[in-house]
Known about the structure:
By secondary structure, chain A is mainly beta. Chain A has helices at 74-77, 128-131, 150-154, and strands spanning 20-27, 30-35, 39-43, 58-64, 67-73, 90-95, 100-105, 107-114, 134-139, 144-148. The longest helix of chain A is centred in the C-terminal third of the chain and has 5 residues, at 150-154. Chain B folds into 6 domains: 3-147, Four Helix Bundle (Hemerythrin (Met), subunit A) (Up-down Bundle), CATH 1.20.120.160; 159-213, Helix Hairpins, CATH 1.10.287.560; 216-397, Histidine kinase-like ATPase, C-terminal domain (Heat Shock Protein 90), CATH 3.30.565.10; 417-544, CATH 2.40.50.180; 556-696, CATH 2.40.50.180; 701-838, Response regulator (Rossmann fold). In chain B, 40% of the residues lie in helices and 27% in strands. The longest helix of chain B is centred in the first third of the chain and has 28 residues, at 3-30. Classes of the chains: A mainly beta, B alpha+beta.
Amino acid sequence: MTTATRPSAKNAHGSRKAGAQYSTFFVGDLFFGIDVLSVQEVLRFQPMTCVPLAPGVIEGLINLRGQIVTAIDMRRRLGLPPRPTGVYPMNMVVRTEDSAVSLLVDEIGDVIEVEGTALEPPPANMASEARELIRGVYQMKDRLLLVLDTERTVELGVGVHAHQVT
Amino acid sequence: MTEQDIIREFLIESTENLNRLDQEIVQLEQRPNDKELLASVFRTFHTIKGTCGFLGFGILERVTHHAENILSRLRSGDLRLSPPLVALILQSLDAARKMLAAIESTGTEGTDEFADLVQRLESAATAAVTEAAAAPPDSSPVEAEKASAAADTAIRVDVGLLDKLMNLVGELVLARNQVLQFTTQKEDGALNATSQRLNLITTELQENVMKTRMQPIGVVWNKLPRLVRDVSHACGKQVRLELDGSGTELDKTIIQAIRDPLTHLVRNCCDHGIETPEERARIGKTPQGVVSLRAYHEGGQVNIEISDDGAGIDAERVKQKAIEKGLCTPEQAGRLSEREALNLIFVPGFSLAQKVTNVSGRGVGMDVVKSNIEKIGGLVDVVSRVAEGTTVKLKIPLTLAIIPGLVITSSTERFVIPQVSLLELIRLDGASAGKIEHVHGTPVYRRRGTLLPVAYLNGILGLQPPAASEAVNIVVLQAEDRQFGLVVDGINDTQEIVVKPLGKQLKGLTIYAGATIMGDGRVALILDALGIGQRSGVLAEHRDEERAESQKKAHSTAEKQRLLLFRAGSFERLAVPLSLVSRLEEFPQSVIERAGGSPVVQYRGGILALLSLAKVLEPDAPDDAMDRDPAQVIVFQDGERSLGLVVDQINDIVEDAVTVRRQSGRHGLLGSAVVGKHVADFLDLHTVLGTAGGDWFAGAAGGARRGTVLLAEPAAFARGLLHSELQMAGYQVIEAAGAAEAISRLEQGGIDVVIVAEDLPRAGSQEVLDAVRRRPGSERIPLLALASGPVQGRPAGSEPFDDCQSKFDREAMLRSLERLAAALEHENPVVAAARSEK
């Protein structure tokens, strides 16, 4: 595969052909990818203003060159245990319909080009908090790449409450 | 503004409109069936025509008028768009351009009457399509390239771009601050001089960029002299207009927002306020009435006063009228103070005019004036004396973007309080006289003889109080008409801050009005006085009773509903319509079992799943509702399905009209409303029950058993309530917020009944009606209209809809719906016949 078709931000749902590029990152032992075109930038840990009374997944607000960006802690968003103290997360700033949102992740990976493999639905037995936010799974050689649905991730009505019910 | 200025503005606007028309008409040729595009072209022509007539450009008006006629016939489907017709319309555009150029250079439209063009336009509008084709091809393209030069001296800039500039300047200021900090540590003369210069330039740049958004209020006032002249002539009155303070500057967005309300108020003064010359002479006034407008800055706000020396408003007559209109009962009216009575003129549907003239009774009403002003954070008040005149006072914020604010600290966090809601600062030293006292557990402070309720900011926000300090700082805030004290840990200084909105994830938090970036580059949250007051209970408890009372009166047209009030988590007053509730139960802990990891009870021969409401609303807060013994449960049932919602406490059942106050962005809540003098949050049952399992409503029992309803309702709050009600009654509901959405959804098919709110914006209900009736296959779908007010008075059969019910009368709505659905099924001949007549 030599000529990679430029993926547009819109051809999202599953129908993605080979050649899509993903910005990858780690949260806990999970390996995620986001369409590279929806990633605005990646930043080191930034000083943050906490928002009292906000939902727990919101870590705070950061000043991104004059723009106020909400930071969402991906560990809490996915229902994972908190980061060990002293370890600072990275900011992955993604564009969403509403505004830019920063996802706090453990570590940033490479930009990966996925070719030839098909996007499969997430395993049914996955924890529901995480499964709701995942668009699908690519089988890579050595690990699984989970494609994150950013719109659902920043929509705090989704998934956050699911574990209360089942 | 002189006549010259008005014409100049007209030229700029028209040139812009003509350029847009060029594009749109060409697009229209490619997509002749695009209704929206056609409507837009029509509107633009209409605008130009209207302004020409206003300015007395007869030929231009004639040309555009005839072109508009053609478009109107295209719109109604009498004509079909053909290439010759397009050419003809474009020719009239060119002619219009030529005239504009002439107006600009000579001040007149020129000598060319365009009689030939007018004649062809006229015949095209009346004749059949083919005849229009007989028109000769384009008669030499008029010099379109000679575009209006007036448009060149000013450019229009997107406000978004200005915002961006302001952001960049803000960043520059931060960078400058850092540079200045460095240079003070260095002993370098040249560097110091340079940085001083940088400092000055940055400050000046910042001021000027802010100015780009400001416009003098004169921009709006300029149109008033003409308006006053025309209106007073039309009513046979003599009116002099006095303008004072037209240089007062306001933010561009605010200027736009007050344009219509101001026009309406001035028109009202002339039409209703000022008496006829004879009448004035009889009571010893000068024959010429005076309408005066005054604008001035005061305390970070702009005050605009619109006064007339006319007949004034008789509070007694207002009361009488309100009783006649059923807005309040005679007893209620008797209790109203004069000021309250006068404020009734802002209630929707209220008009004092004896007859509707062509001057008033159109455009925006007083209720719209009020809501438009309140939308931008302003206040409206009216003072009137019979036979002496009326003054309407508007208090409007200077800008929505930059506001002065007080920086305070709570625990280690900084917050900003907008100066507008700030009344005074009180510092209590250990030794000094005052201190905070407690009345039945509620902290209060004696301020000059009155008791001021007090709240602690770090308590409200759940922050750690700092180590005990000697002094207590109270910030006295004003929210709506109430005052309260907020104890903060430290008071820093006042600053001009740039307000930035919060992301949608935080929209539900009403205690914040936004955020801003401080001098050191960190983000600080802006507190909302009203939200803080409600959150702390200071306002909820002492809520202005008068206000709630008059709210109730104002909305007494809304049908009363029985509501269940209860408490869950930190939400003290939650409400749900009682009609949706199946039963209220108490379950002792001993009967609660667990199945599949979630709590259940055996209930009436089945298994009832329990769900803690607090967990849904506040997933991260600790919740002990489930551990209470006995657990308080609200049971919802739909056919075979049932769910028990566990709450902390069931408080009350009240009967009241629901008056929507504000919508909520919070998961599981529709919004807040005043219920029995206090604010209550309305539960979004649709979402909450959906949490219990995605298929709660879609299941076999509740599913499409009774058909699918398309619900077109503009207000999200009402839509949510209606959605829940319909679902509980067994309908499948598809929501639409506007006419366009409803129509597009309709085209996907599968709709059995359409419910449309009469107050869809821009005559949307009519649009939906037309779409349903015109579209093949859907003409039999019954339409139920929902009125915002009562429907008893309306004569049966007068509606173009199949039925019309009040939005708040759930029973009548469901009955009507059932009837319509049944009629559709059996093709009731009466209904079918009635429908085909329309």
